[in-house]
Structures
1.
Amino acid sequence: MSKVLLIGAGGVGRVVVHKLVQNKDTFSHITLASRRLESCQVYQDEMITRYGVHIDIAQVDADSVDELVELIKKVEPDVVLNIALPYQDLTIMEACLITKTHYLDTANYEHPDTAKFEYKEQWAYHDRYKDAGIMALLGSGFDPGVTNVFCAYLQKHYFDEIHTIDILDCNGGDHGYPFATNFNPEINLREVSSNGRYWEDGEWIETKPMEIKMVWDYPQIGKKDSYLLYHEEMESLVKHIKGLKRIRFFMTFGESYLTHMKCLENVGMLGIEEVEHNGCKIVPIQFLKTLLPDPKTLGERTKGKTNIGVVAKGLKDGKEVSYYLYNVCDHQEAFKETNSQAVSYTTGVPAMIGAKMMCEGKWMSDGVWNMEQFDPDPFMDELNKQGLPWHIENLSS
Ligand SMILES: NC(=O)c1ccc[n+]([C@@H]2O[C@H](COP(=O)([O-])OP(=O)(O)OC[C@H]3O[C@@H](n4cnc5c(N)ncnc54)[C@H](OP(=O)(O)O)[C@@H]3O)[C@@H](O)[C@H]2O)c1
């Protein structure tokens, strides 16, 4: 029975609250905190209506270590779940260190002024977390998160050596808007408008945004254009998967999405630097976020499925083998259960499972860890029980 403090009452936060409440045997006490108390109030009411369960709520500015420390001392959680934005990772990690509290997040730290994703600054906490006797679990969403666990599971049960990994992320959902993003628009657009990067023979190879394209036939969805992007889980997987020679990440985008994005980029709307507008300063991408549909409101309108998985090739007993491990999630089913579309659902469920692994002691070790560093089996079992069942196909010829 564990006390949890969840920070960030956004799209993903909503799913995490639902799943924590559904797992009351593990999570005996839940506090939801966010920048705006009214965001928390909506979910507090939803938990009463749906489950008859009361959760506590609180206001906190997670950019302030002092405010966080004060809140953590008041709530005394066993673990803090950071479901706010990647900008808050370091302040929340610092507050957890000061209060000696376990930490979990779903995305690696990003500085608001540089669209760069790397684990360096979070990994730098490893020794201090170890000395303090606390654990940080990094990237417990779907990708990163489940994709890391999929790789660890394949390595453990299907391969002696994995040589290549392709992570394949398809959102086959349609929300009916000409243009919208499925999670925080600022974070999403920064990610997809950056240069692509993949790793081969020990080196990172940089590509222009959307330069490399392939068509993949996604089970239960069909053939989709898939573009090579840089994605953060590759940074830890290259360190932890034995014998790896190449790893790439592909995500599907429709033509309309790409045309809108190119146009917004061409006129400067994806800029992350402040500009002067009518005497006040604005950041273009933040203004664009104000104009775009709130991802939280997409759930009801979104139909179709997501399919995220991993294709690995390598050796087993001296023979070349290849496996495809994936999950399919239905937007409408996710909405029925949690009032959220599948992109939030596929992130929020693994965040709760990560916390469950920690609170039940199945994954517990002092220091800062990525998902593939733990035994994948109990996590894989929970995916099947908690709404994200997985499938494995043998692609070996
Ligand atoms: N690993 C994966 O598979 C994956 C996939 C998708 C998203 N993600 C990550 O999940 C996280 C949440 O994404 P989302 O789509 O839920 O974003 P979102 O809807 O924008 O929600 C983020 C919430 O964080 C709160 N927040 C922002 N700044 C804050 C601050 N300084 N102090 C306290 N609260 C603050 C906001 O609260 P208020 O409403 O109170 O202002 C907002 O509701 C992001 O880090 C994202 O990168 C991971």
2.
Amino acid sequence: MIVGKVVGSVVSTRKNERLIGQTAKRQAVTNYKKTISSIKREMGTDHTVSIDDKKYNCIYMLITKGKAMTNKERFIEIFRSKIKREGAEKLLDYICSSGSDFFTAPASTRFHGAYEGGLLEHSLNVYECLCDFVKRPRFREKYGFTFSEESLAIAALLHDLCKTNFYKTEMRNVKKNGVWESVPYYTIEDNLPYGHGEKSVYIISGFMKLTREEAFAIRYHMGFAEDENKRNVGKSFELYPLGFALHMADMEATYFLEGKD
Ligand SMILES: [Fe+2]
Ligand SMILES: [Fe+2]
């Protein structure tokens, strides 16, 4: 989905600031390592570009009124425009607070999104995949499954909230070109060991009420991949198809949109 009409063909980052169009073009020679040209043709596709060893999905290099949105801005924009229920603003305040590392946390220690901002990127990728998945004619016409935009945003953006304050960085020695170097790596430090999907449901419920379908979808979004009671997973998908769609979107984002750092 592309928002807005003004799309720059060149984007760049400089001192954590995102530059677009002519501004990016002017500094392209001196800042060539952090500048991507001809981005326009990739907008809205699954193509990714790398700047500073970080991957950016072109879908999120969105421009509204001539201004590119960061993943954090995009998350907040979707959250505020789609999630209107009581307590939602308080939950967003918590996510944005210094007590939460949601926007900087990785999505995993070694696999998908194992870099700063990986969890945020994954949550947005799942949102795109989920919105797309539920548009399938079979889903809507054959089975008659429909979901509110609010439920889609809640399920996708918040399904992995359990990974907030879940990872920490440690250092280890690695030999590079025959020389030992101290490099950072992610490890797990779970201070609220309440499971995975169930922990996300627990955190969200502290701020706002979930519908039963949203709660089941988030609770069972890992599908059969976790050490779950298999009968419960199947039954929950049958009862609450949003869970099935969320699981599919989660897998699509993980295996096709995201990779190792
Ligand atoms: Fe998950
Ligand atoms: Fe996930």
